[in-house]
Amino acid sequence: MSYKVKIGLSNKHVHLQQEHLEILFGKGYELTHKKPLVQPGQFASEETVDIVGPKKTLKGVRILGPVRPETQVELAMTDARSIGIKAPVRESGKLEGTPGCKIIGPCGEIEIDHGVMVALRHVHLNPQQAIEAGVKDKDIVCLKIDGERGLIFDNVLVRSGDKHEREVHLDTDEGNAAGCGPDAIAEIIK
Ligand SMILES: [Zn+2]
Q1: What is the CATH number of domain 3-7+121-189?
Q2: Protein residues within 5 Å, CB atom, of ion ligand 1
Q3: Kind plus residue range of the DSSP H or E element containing 118
Q4: Torsion angle defined by CA atoms of residues 20, 23, 27 and 29, in that order, rounded to the nearest 10 degrees
Q5: pTM metric for this prediction
Q6: How far is the CA of 23 from the centre of ligand 1 (A)?
Q7: What is the enclosing helix (H) or strand (E) of 85?
Q8: Distance 22 CA to ligand 1 centre (A)
Q9: Are the C-beta atoms of 167 and 158 separated by less than 8 Å?
Q10: Which secondary-structure segment (H or E) carries 78?
Q11: Cβ of 33: how many Cβ atoms within 10 Å?
Q12: Domains of the chain: which residue ranges?
């Protein structure tokens, strides 16, 4: 059975914890909604920060809201390498042992000692969609992408629950490798 999912390409971005947001943007600061994301309740904010590594700075990196329990910087491997950080591939929120960086905002800066990672590619499905696709939360599946640079990605994590909505998340390196445009589709293969 074939189950198809639209691909969302994640550019480099940052999730901030409230105390870090307030150091970078000022006391009591709240993020400004720019655009809702496909995942329920999540949004791209108007605010950006600069991510500083040993070799270089990535300017204007978008903050995604809402605030989270722990600050997390998600980069493609190309981004991480360009600023001199060796970032491991991690599931969101699993930040133990990851490297840190400096983050600069308009009102201040912070030095985090961990939190920089390359996101483990994954597919979001709500519970009903997971049933239709014949998969469950934490399954590992393959994704087939057609086209001129078509390829099959192995080791794709299924993330399913009430707070999820059908969408594949690949980063810019993965999307470019597969030649994905804005309307790219992937097929789940078990
Ligand atoms: Zn995601």
Answers
A1: 2.40.40.20
A2: 169
A3: strand 116-119
A4: -50
A5: 0.95
A6: 26
A7: none
A8: 25
A9: no
A10: helix 77-82
A11: 12
A12: 3-7+121-189, 11-118
